Amino acid sequence: SFPYYFHSLVKVQKRISAGLTILQYYTTKEWVFRCDNTKTLYQRLSPDDRKRFYFDVNEINYKTYLYDFILGARQYILKEAPETLPKARKLLRKLYIMDKIVQIGLYLCGLWLAWTYLEVVTGSIQFVFDTAIESLRGTTVRQGL
Fold it and tell me: Is the pTM of this model over 0.70?
C-alpha cells in the first residue's frame, strides 16, 4: 500500500487537472473584446464623473490586478480557502528548495561523469602516445644508401 502522502499527491493532482480543464477553454482560444461603447461612454463623461467612475485601463496596476486575480482563481475555481494560503506558501517553499537540491545534485553528477570521462579519454590518449613513442624507439632510421 502506498504511504499517505502519495494519496494526498494524487488528490492534489486531480484538483490541478480539474482546474486546468476548466481554464483550458479560456486559455487556448484567442479572444477579442470590443469596447467601443465603453470608450464612447468614457468620452461623454464629465471630468467629475471621470474621477468618480474611473475605468481607464492604461492606469491599471497590473501587479495588484494579477495578484488579486490569482487569489480569486485559487478561492473560487480551485475552492481553496484563503486560510490555507500560508500552508500552501510553506509547501511551495519546501518544493522550491527540494527542486534546487535535485538540480545541484544532477549538476554534480554531470560534472563527476565529465571528469571521469575526461580521465578515461586522457588515459587513452596517453596510452596511444606512449605506444607510438615506444614503437618509434624500437625502429632504426636508415640514412642514405
Answer: no
| Largest interatomic CA distance in the chain | 113
The rounded distance, in Å, linking the Cα atoms of 99 and 88 is 16
* Residues, the chain: 145
Nearest one of 106, 128, 130, 126 to 118, comparing CA atoms: 126
Cβ(102)–Cβ(43) below 8 Å = no
pLDDT tens digits for 52-77? 887 777 788 999 999 999 999 989 98
Contacts of 50 (CB under 8 A, 6+ apart): 42
Domain ranges of the chain: 82-144
Mean pLDDT of the chain: 86
Q: Is the dihedral of CA 82, 83, 86, 90 positive or negative?
A: negative
Q: Buried b vs exposed e over 18-41: b needs ≥16 C-beta within 10 Å? A: ebeeeeeeeeeeeeeeeeeeeeee
The percent of residues above 90 in pLDDT, for the chain, comes to 34
